[in-house]
Here is the input.
Amino acid sequence: MKRPLHLLLFLLFLLFAGSVLADDPPDETAETKQPPAVPKTLQSPRATMATFLHAMNDAKRGKPERIEDAIETLDLSDVSSLVRNERGQDLAWMLLEVLDKTRLVDLDTVPDRKEGEPWVFERYRNGEVRISRTQDGRWLFDRETVAALPAILEEVARRETKVGGPGNAKWLPLHIRLRQQLPEWLTQKTLILQNWQWLGLLLVIGLGVVVDRIAQLLARFAMRRWLKRFPQVAHRIRDADQRLRPLGLMLMAAIWWLGILLLGLPEPVLLVLLVAVKLLASIAAVWVAWRLVDVISALLAEKAATTDNRVDDVLIPLVARTLKIFIAVGGIVFVADNLNIDVTGLIAGLGLGGLAFALAAKDLVQNFFGSITVLMDRTFTVGDWIIVGDIEGTVEDMGFRSTRIRTFYNSLVTIPNSRFITAEVDNMGARRYRRYKQKFGLTYDTPPEKIEAFCEGLREIVRQHPYMRKDYFQIWFNDLGASALEILIYVFWETPDWTTELRERHRFLLDAMRLADALGVEFAFPTQTIHLYQEEPSGDQEAVPSLEEAREVARRIAREGGMAAT
Here is the structure.
């Protein structure tokens, strides 16, 4: 959770730095550069007026994208870039309504000159509509005209349209049509806004809150139904009922966004409210996507837990983190686009911090390829007992940058994944068989027959044990120790984890003790016995057997032992 957040903050810093660089004034050498060529559509007052009228007529014929060409004829330099697109569309429709309610535009009467004084279409009590030449050579409806358009529209609102054919009523924004039909007391200004706009804001806010509440209830109901269908996923999702809470916020912000645009608010108010709502909607959308990744990854993780393949147990968390990083980066671009911030500023910010980014990316790339190496080679997975150098423990978490190992004294060691490219990893958890090698010591007074019976009894325990390897084990009378007769125990357990191994070893040792107790075999412990030797009279000395007699006894014992073994 913290890594994507850090990435989000880092990208925000780059975005800010890039926007600062993008807004820097040009250097001295820029003065010597040639100015950009003036487009033919804006080379004269006649070209500008024709461009505007043709674009707006095309927009009314079902080509809404053409309104962008109409906006290009307006000098919006005094309008904030954060609301320039939305405000520009409103102003374009206002200008068209003013022109149509004034007179029919005859393009032949509009001058076609490329230089000279501004051309005035009409003067009104609240301002005038004129086209002026800018410093870069373009002819635009100037800033004073753009600023006076709302007041001029109020002045001509009650006039009849002077243009033949279909009017603009069908295409005008709702707030312009509504304002023309409202009684005078609703169009009066009270505290910055007109009365009907205050009522509209109250209605929009109330509608957004209601939609938020309904969305919350539906999301909670849908989440509960989904958890009933997949009850095993519930323990993996924290605060499941509130998991889709941002969905209501996103819908509420969308209602507010649409409502604010329909009310035709003044630019200062529109700037504050629209930027706040855009930011809320963007953050809520990113938040919804983030939460959905958690829900989907929980479902996939639960399904992965039911499979024998443990690679997917590691792959799913990595995919979830990748999606969250993608959402964080996409969220930055989404927010920047909604706030009309040039995304090229982000690229400029990357250029500003290019050196630091490159140095940081070196370790990032190494760690990334380390994680890919572990996944492709299946070196280990979550839950495996591994030994890396002097670090030994159970793999608890694997990420793109590092792997966390819980040691057997319960500390948490974080290892960069780049280390696994060259390190020797001893995966104790990948063992198919787990060996047990030990020597059972019996007392020296144990008869050979009991030793043989005890060894055969231990072999039978191995054959009957459900977790022990049957095709290879060694149990033999192996050595005469300093204080015991030693029985070699060399067996293997086929167990999936260390806990099962300990449990089955416990079971085997208890069975061995029960067998020894049943056969009357005693286990030895380190002792020392002191024998006092006293020489007896020579007449009573025991006869010493000859070498041939000793060989005969050995042959008989060997024959009897071989027959017993057979």
Observations:
- The first strand starts at residue 119 and ends at 124.
- The two ends are 68 Å apart (CA to CA).
